[in-house]
Design brief:
The chain has helices at 14-27, 42-51, 59-78, 94-101, 115-128, 168-179, 198-205, 211-227, 288-297, and strands at 4-8, 32-33, 82-86, 107-112, 133-138, 154-158, 187-193, 236-243, 248-255, 259-263, 268-272, 277-284, 301-307, 313-319. The protein is an alpha/beta fold. An eight-stranded mixed beta sheet has the order 1-5-4-3-6-7-14-13, sandwiched between helices. It starts with a strand and ends with a strand. It binds N,N,N-trimethyl-histidine. The site of N,N,N-trimethyl-histidine (AVJ) has 11 residues, from β12. Monomer. Belongs to the methyltransferase superfamily. EgtD family. It catalyses: L-histidine + 3 S-adenosyl-L-methionine = hercynine + 3 S-adenosyl-L-homocysteine + 3 H(+).
């Protein structure tokens, strides 16, 4: 049996306390907002996996195309002995990297807030690669990270375009904290979705089958269950908007009529005017120059920029 360690850096009840604070603050301000991380309970994670298979949702396929094409170059450039993956989820695309990095690779450190995703991903990996040490971390990587003392060089991967869910100031803080994890010779592999025509972007966030709408509304079911609220997801419409000034997609939930929701565990009632919206996600789209500048702002140098054939998505390799 190969080594498997699971370390929790989040207290068991952290999720609970964070959800309460986020909902209290987000729904009592104007305009109303909720952070996207609350989409991902078991049902939401399933819906997200379904999104990645939709014809309109190109980012997952585009990033996989780049990973398959470039994994050998990534391995040659980094010679990583430890692969750290932030927001590893199902670790599905990571297999291409793990294959290319073997046999030099010693340790895989998946980091995620979801314990169930980590244990499921780790157990299937361990079966396939008995020589690999897997040290899974249950952690919120936006809050600073302490990594296990596995051998360098390290490659830190942050895939899927999830960095786009952070606002520009949050990205600056996050990239500096990643930079602080890197020693000379270590590298960051960053996935970013790219600016493109509005029609393609909107379709990716408002698909014909309504899977993204269900994913968006799922956050209301999470609040109902966890905080004893009485949201009826049917009272809200899914909205996807392209903000061309900020170059990001916003997902929103729009109240179909004036209504009031009780949130028992917070002891509050939240009123909506007809048409009032909650912003539930920002998903920023990038250009090469912007990525280079943001990396440089955190002390990271862009070394390689790879896109898929359709130039829809990019993988950046950066060094400290
Ligand atoms: C997993 C955060 C990259 O922003 O595209 C998919 C989540 N939201 N459809 C994204 C998402 C709506 C996704 N990320």
């Amino acid at each position: 049996m190969s080594p498997f360690l699971l370390t929790r850096t989040l207290p068991e009840d952290a999720t609970d306390a964070d959800l309460r604070t986020d909902v209290l603050h987000g729904l009592t301000r104007t305009p109303k907002v909720l952070p996207p991380k609350w989409f991902y309970d078991a049902r939401g994670s399933e819906l997200f996996e379904e999104i990645t298979r939709l014809p309109e949702y190109y980012p997952t396929r585009a990033e996989r195309e780049i990973l398959i094409a470039r994994a050998p170059e990534i391995a040659a450039a980094t010679r990583a002995r430890t692969l750290v993956e932030l927001g590893s989820g199902s670790s599905e695309k990571t297999r291409h990297l793990l294959d290319a990095l073997a046999p030099e690779l010693d340790s895989y450190v998946p980091v995620d807030v979801s314990e169930s995703a980590l244990t499921a991903a780790a157990s299937s990996l361990l079966d396939e690669r008995p020589a690999l040490s897997v040290h899974a971390l249950i952690a919120d990587f936006t809050r600073g990270l302490a990594l296990p003392g596995t051998p360098g060089p390290r490659l830190v991967a942050f895939l899927g375009g999830t960095i786009g869910n952070l606002l520009p100031d949050e990205r600056a803080v996050f990239l500096k904290s990643v930079r602080s994890l890197l020693a000379p010779g270590d590298a960051l592999l960053l996935g970013t979705d790219l600016v493109k025509d509005e029609e393609t972007l909107i379709a990716a966030y408002d698909d014909a089958q309504g899977v993204t709408a269900a994913f968006n509304k799922n956050v209301l079911s999470v609040i109902d269950r966890e905080l004893g609220a009485d949201f009826d997801p049917g009272d809200f419409d899914h909205v996807a908007v392209w903000d061309r000034g900020h170059e990001w997609i916003e997902m929103r939930l729009r109240a179909r009529s004036a209504l009031t929701v009780k949130i028992r565990e917070l002891d509050i009632a939240v009123s909506f005017e007809a048409g009032e919206e909650i912003r539930t996600e920002v998903s920023a789209k990038f250009r090469r120059e912007g990525v280079r500048r943001e990396l440089a702002g955190a002390g990271l140098n862009l070394r390689e920029w790879w896109t898929d054939e359709g130039e829809r998505f990019a993988l950046s390799l950066a060094a400290a």
